[in-house]
Design goal:
With 423 residues, the protein is mainly beta. The chain is built from 2 helices and 19 strands. The N terminus is likely disordered.
Length: 423
């Protein structure tokens, strides 16, 4: 069974009851808004991670678990995100602003040996929070009210291991465990009716999939290097359980359903929750000074919860970015030891409406600010990132979403878990 939404109705309802929209109306489709598994520093570089090997020894790359040959310290990260969305539609030329904040990453990583590195982390995978009310008044004075609402989140816990086969070539493996619940309901009632008709969808998931990665870095001159990388995400071990219920009821004080009568109820399972995808990247840089890279990500279409005039399709993303570090050994000038990050991306989204794709593009930037007067190889500090972009279009009465997303992270790195050689 599929959910059917009409985008002009979403547009109208978005502005009629805008205060209850949590993030984006596009979260009403499928399992919600997908959150990229990027840390603050990677996000500030446009999302390039597949061919990104940090020059120093205090950072772990979860996106490509093979790109961690330099990690020698325990790395602990705690990060948060603040999303600021500005919606606009040609429907009466209306606009709305929405904000949300959430914990975006907790991770720890450390070397098991000079060749083997291990990381464990938590991140949100998708989120859904919206409430859209549409009203229509007929000539006889009867009012028809239609409420679309949804909430919930799917999270992921990741465990990654890297193995350095040679100084140039590394392999990596990451397992991803997804868990959580997302919920949608469409409630219809009339002003002269005593009961509400509610069509409810509850999705519950516990699922595994896997990512394999490879990374190759070659010294081209005394201080220059070329980096190549690739990842493949595959396999769905687990399932998405979906319970559909069509019922009638009315609300009492405290929004408690009363006199519930089930009209129809169905249950289904789907194993294709997380789409197969791959990423290819390349980068070039100067040791401890600068780096620039680019990558292409591709994902097959996700579970199809929707039907005409919508389409669920494969998506791809093209990213470019890098970093610049003026002089990590200059202890007289603090800003010489700040890492400056920059990037941009364009994404062809997986959702389209009447042949019009819901695409996204953005420019990004950020800083890594060290805490102490130590070299970058032992750098603990604050990571800051900003993302400015646009999603969707005003064509076909659709919604254009401008966004300014802020990220902040605390990064601690030191020699933990090491055995003492001397007392």
């Amino acid at each position: 069974m599929k959910r059917i939404f009409v985008l002009p109705l979403l547009v109208a309802g978005l502005f009629f009851n805008a205060q209850s929209i949590g993030n984006s109306p596009y979260a009403a489709f499928g399992i919600g808004d997908i959150k990229y598994d990027n840390t603050t520093d990677v996000n500030a570089m446009g999302g390039i991670s597949t061919a990104y090997i940090w020059d120093f020894n205090n950072n772990f790359n979860f996106s490509n678990p093979a790109a961690n040959k330099n990690l020698e310290l325990t790395s602990l990260k705690v990060e948060g995100a603040n999303e600021n969305n500005f919606f606009k539609s040609n429907y009466d030329n209306m606009s709305v602003t929405k904000h949300s904040s959430y914990l975006s990453n907790i991770s720890i990583a450390f070397p098991l040996s000079p060749k083997v590195k291990f990381g464990l982390g938590y991140q949100p995978y998708s989120s859904k929070k919206y409430s859209i009310l549409s009203k229509e008044t007929f000539t006889d004075g009867t009012v028809k009210a239609n409420l679309f609402s949804g909430e919930g989140m799917i999270s992921t816990v990741q465990a990654a291991v890297s193995y350095q086969i040679s100084p140039e070539f590394g392999l990596g493996f990451r397992t991803n465990f997804y868990f959580g619940n997302v919920y949608d309901i469409n409630e219809l009632t009339y002003s002269n009716a005593e009961l509400i008709n509610g069509y409810e969808t509850k999705n519950k998931t516990k699922s595994f999939n896997f990512t394999v990665g490879t990374a190759y870095q070659k010294k081209l001159a005394a201080d220059r290097k070329l980096t190549l990388g690739g990842t493949l995400t595959f396999g769905n071990t687990g399932k998405l359980e979906t319970q559909y219920t069509n019922s009638t009821y009315f609300y009492t004080t405290g929004q408690t359903k009363n006199n519930v009568s089930i009209v129809d109820s169905k249950f289904s399972e789907n194993k294709d929750l997380i789409p197969l995808g791959f990423s290819l990247g390349a980068g070039y840089g100067k040791d401890a000074k600068w780096f620039v890279g680019t990558q292409v990500d591709y994902n097959k279409s996700q579970i199809d919860f929707i039907t005409d005039p919508f389409a669920n399709q494969a998506s791809y993303k093209i990213s470019a970015g890098g970093w610049y570090l003026p002089n990590y050994n200059n202890f007289r000038n603090y800003f010489s030891r700040v890492t400056y990050r920059y990037g941009a991306y364009y994404e062809k989204g997986n959702l389209s409406y009447m042949g019009t794709n819901v695409n996204r593009f953005a420019i990004t930037g950020g800083l890594s600010l060290p805490f102490e007067n130590k070299s970058a190889s032992r750098m603990s500090g604050i990571d800051l990132g900003v993302e400015l972009g646009q999603r969707g279009t005003l064509e076909n009465n659709m919604i254009r979403q401008n966004f300014v997303n802020l990220k902040v992270g605390l990064h601690f790195a030191d020699k933990w878990f090491n055995k003492r050689l001397y007392d």
